[in-house]
Fold:
Amino acid sequence: MFIVHSEFVDEMKIISEIIHVAIVEDDHEIRQTLALIIDGTPGFRCKYSYEDCESALASLPGNYINVVLMDVELPGLNGIVGVKKLKPQMPDTDFIMLTIRQDDDTIFNSICAGATGYLVKDTPPSELLKSIKEAHQGGAPMSANIARQVIKSFHSNEPSPLSDRETEVLKLLSQGMNYRTVAAEIYLSPHTVKTHIKNIYNKLHVNSRAEAIKKAIKDRLI
Structure:
């Protein structure tokens, strides 16, 4: 019969109650400050810190980490790509973007990559720790102004700049069809479809199919 000693149980309980954090940040001073804040607070532990995504990708998968603080602008792979690559390998780990970037595209791309939180770098230490705990408990922490931007984007009622036919063409393009297949699907000539695509690019201020689809999904046009 296998006997579990009470000391082992107590040790495992302590480990499970500690939130294990990793940091990916290229600024040495910021990285060191974050580590000191985390390690200096009961219930938190900074287990790993990296100056780039490449190092994190080589080391983090397979390790026990609850929350990763990820900078967006990094040398080499940026933080969004880093999260996109790490999240499938670490499905139980929460990723919080910690950055100075507050533009809609960066926020949207971070969330799509798998980030569960988004904080600006001037977040006070108490709020940072609260956000780490919130993410670990299943929440989605965001700085107040970031949350306002996200809510505003969901409440946007601006009419689509695309006509019904252009919207139809873009929907079919998003399904992987080429312009000839689209033409056959909706009984138009390839030339007419090309004209619709050109108009879509002009109206959405993009230069490629990928950009058009990305913008249309972000702005909920399709």
